[in-house]
Amino acid sequence: MGALDYLISNFCTVPSTKTKAMQTVEIKVKMDCDGCERKVRNAVATMKGVKSVEINRKQSRVTVNGYVDPNKVLKRVRRTGKKRAEFWPYVPLHVVSNPHASGVYDKRAPAGHVRNVQMFPASTETADKFMSYFSEENVNACSIM
Length: 145
Prior knowledge:
Largest sheet: 4 strands, antiparallel
Number of helices: 5
Distance between the termini: 86 Å
Oligomer: single chain
């Protein structure tokens, strides 16, 4: 029985397949004509796992829905000759908490969109540290002055 169990466990198992999650990939691609649009659409639509491809030439935006790897989609778009293709860097204006901070506004962005920049609030640890020196709970507050 030991040899039979070994053979079954090593040679009769079905390899596990990793399924990719359904996701939406948005890419910024400059397309000047119908030929450019058709070339990008055909390149992306023939990929395995792609369910739909939407192209908005006015915004220079390609949206791909399906079970795909975002990096492979970007690589496929770049192989069509669009070397400046990048992931969609813009978000709607109402999503950003401070849309007029430096680095957020981009005049090439479509109407109603700004660049997606992560803004981190300033650290308040040092402010809290200095405020504790002059608080009423600090019995040595007068010795500092």
